[in-house]
Amino acid sequence: MNASAKKKKWSDYVFWFILPALVVYTAFVIVPTLSSVYLSFTSWDGISTKINYIGFDNFIEIVKSPRVHNALKNTLIFAIVLVLLENIVALGLAVLMDNVRWFRNFFRSIFYFPVLMSGIIMGFIWMIILNYNFGVINQLLEMTGLGFLKADWLGDPDYALISIILSTVWKAAGYYMVIYLAGLQGIPQELNEAASIDGANRWQQFRHITFPLLAGATTVCIMLSMIGSLKIFDQIAVMTDGGPGFATETLTYIIYKVGFGELRQGFGTALAIVLFLLTLLISLIQMKVLRKREVQM
Amino acid sequence: MAKKPLLKFTSLVMALSLVLTACGGNNAADHTEEPGSNTGTGTDAAKEVSFTIAYATGDPATKQAIETTIDAFTEKNPNIKIVNYSETTSAAYLDWLKTKDAVGQFPDLVEMRDTKVFADAGKIVELPEDLRGLFKTLPEYDGKVYNAPIAGTAPQGIIYSKKAYADAGITELPKTYDEFLAIQEKLAASGISPIVVGGKDIFHMGFWTNFFFENEVYAADPDWNSKRTAKTASFTDAGMVKAVTDYKELFTKYVDKGWLSTADNQTASILVSGKAAQLFSGPWMFGQIAEADPSFEFGFYAIPNREGKTVINGLPSLSGWSLSAEAAKDADKVAAMKEFIKFFFDPAQYGPYLATVNGIPTTSAEVTYETGEQMKEVLRLMSDDTVVKSLGLANWYGENAIPPQFRNWFYKLLQELVLKNGDVTEYMKQADTEYDNNVKANAQQ
């Protein structure tokens, strides 16, 4: 039996091994996904057994709706600002952790701890910290004579979005820190030593050696944080419920709200399709740009 | 080569067994009875039966009182098992209920607050005939009765700190809305935040909205909602604009600054801690306030309108215990749920329940229970024929029902109006557009 025949025989059996998982995956992922596409063209309320086909009406409403535009704007703000902040903070923490000599594991655990918390729990904690009347931040400001700086951190549209962003950075940065740390530990020390002998200062070493060699970790972190920020939901649901008014509504949030709270499953599903396409598009662009950067470096 | 199909079959069986082993890894734990299933053991005399139940748990006193009733019932009827699905959640009850339905856990016996939605979807059935005699009034939807009303519609009013009123030199309760505003000025001048609002919970926004709508619109025209649906009335009508303008003025001038991040369940603490002087809410708060500080002295009154007339939330509405259509197919479950409903509304059980939740009785049988000073005022208002009884924006039913999705959107719009100091008429034009879109979308369903 020659090699290609052997390979063919093997691939026959591989198929039969894959089949059960494929059936389960088709039943629980592929079929619901395809039925979502169908539902996005209906006016289904999510409860009744009657489902009416309404063509592109849901998508036309998405294009026209100021509420959706506002949610899309907020989603993009979250995506851009969160990706930048999470990665800057995570990289900074990783560099610090890489250089710290004492209590290294203790600090790593401390910074990683928020990652282990669910978004819901974290949302509740920050909601209490940021509460206008009883929150620690306002109480501290009051006690230190800075009462004039007190604000309704989650109730004022000027602060609500940034409060959610900062609390999300607090939660997620530790996760990306671990990835960056793994990348940092893979960089040979000799490179930095050689650069140091050549007279490069710490910043120059970081700028021209460390950061370029972290290209792989950067691609992974940016991709993950972008997808995570496009999907942000828990914190908003707990901390602001999309408010005040419509100030912190994002696409994922209104998908849930219109689908379950406002009995418009068809419209909510159409929004989910839009979010899926948006995430796919951004991820593809990002991958292309970052991969190119990796090759160049 | 004859072995090939056998090998393929063997590999498929192996792979399937791997998958199924993983799926069945927790079989031992799965031997517990399915929620809502009838165990089917025992004799007919004490046939074991189980049903699921769910109710809104936003108010801790109500949650506690219903749990107590369930415990008392199951103790008396050991053959009936009640699986309680209720969860404490910050989400709106409708969101939660619909999520339960989506995951196939629609309760057998459910506190229904959106009767139209679930009746139209065929999720609930009519209340059994033999239970209807228990109640004084049973509102109908489409000529059918779906609910066993748990308690009467509760009026809302001002719950005020007696100390704050005394400190501000307020000796008399207001006889008109303008006098009420004068009181707010006095309170603000005394250095206390006049009104606390739990605006983080969107349902709470309905309290003040309904007060203004009932006074400026519904008292004169209870059919306004149906006219809006038929496009013969508009949110830009003079009455509506007046109502929303008053709302905006009140929120801008007299509401505690942190109102948008304050949850409904924090309002009692803010009131008793002296950070705010008043709360506009219903009698279900009396227990929470007393629990937060038993020594806190507070009173309750309904705010009069500009003409000195009192209009309150007080008409019967479509809400109460409903039987699910799925459970109604099982005669044993129906019998068990009927037993529970009879037990719940038995005066011996219902009296303590009403006393705990400060509720208004709905039964034809007389119910006696102890009430505090504030609840006495609530009951006086309900029995006073000169007090106009009305319903809130989303509580009307039949032709006057609004699109279910409109309510929360509108409350958020009002929040935005206050925050952005928006033009009332312009915002009401947006409300008209959204309302019409919702009506159109629902007509397509």
In short:
With about 300 residues, chain A is mainly alpha-helical.
Mean pLDDT of chain A: 89
Specify the number of helices of chain A. 13
Helix content of chain B: 40-55%
Give the chain pair forming the largest contact, with residue counts.
Answer: A-B, 52 and 54 residues
The CATH class name of the largest domain in chain B reads Alpha Beta
The geometry of chain A reads as flat
Total domain modules of chain A:
1
Topology of chain A as a string of helices (H) and strands (E): HHHHHHHHHHHHH
Total beta strand runs of chain A? 0
Any idea how many domains of chain B?
2
* Biggest sheet architecture of chain B: 5 strands, mixed
Topology summary:
The complex is a heterodimer of chains A (297) and B (445).
Chain A (H helix, E strand, L loop, with lengths): L2 H37 L17 H8 L1 H34 L4 H13 L2 H11 L6 H8 L13 H29 L3 H9 L4 H12 L1 H16 L3 H6 L11 H11 L3 H32 L1
Helix pairs in contact in A: 3-7, 3-10, 3-12, 4-7, 7-10, 8-9, 10-13, 12-13
Chain B lengths: L2 H21 L25 E6 L5 H17 L3 E5 L8 H10 L6 E4 L2 H6 L3 E2 L3 H4 L24 E5 H6 L9 H13 L3 E4 L8 H14 L5 H6 L8 H17 L12 H6 L3 E6 L2 H9 L5 E4 L9 E3 L6 E5 L6 H15 L1 H11 L15 H11 L4 E3 L15 H14 L4 H20 L2
Parallel strand pairs in B: 1-2, 1-3, 6-7, 9-11
Antiparallel strand pairs in B: 3-10, 4-10, 5-7, 5-8
Describe it for me?
The complex is a heterodimer of chains A (297) and B (445). Chain A has 13 helices and no strands. Chain A has helices at residues 3-39, 57-64, 66-99, 104-116, 119-129, 136-143, 157-185, 189-197, 202-213, 215-230, 234-239, 251-261, 265-296. Chain B has helices at 3-23, 60-76, 93-102, 115-120, 129-132, 162-167, 177-189, 205-218, 224-229, 238-254, 267-272, 284-292, 331-345, 347-357, 373-383, 406-419, 424-443, and strands at 49-54, 80-84, 109-112, 124-125, 157-161, 193-196, 276-281, 298-301, 311-313, 320-324, 388-390. Chain B is an alpha/beta fold. Chain B is globular. Chain B folds into 2 domains: 49-153 and 317-370, Periplasmic binding protein-like II (D-Maltodextrin-Binding Protein, domain 2, 3-Layer(aba) Sandwich); 157-313 and 384-443, 3-Layer(aba) Sandwich (D-Maltodextrin-Binding Protein, domain 2), CATH 3.40.190.10. A 5-stranded mixed β-sheet of chain B has the order 2-1-3-10-4. A 4-stranded mixed β-sheet of chain B has the order 6-7-5-8. In chain B, helix 2 links the parallel strand 1 and strand 2. The interface between A and B is large, with 52 and 54 residues.
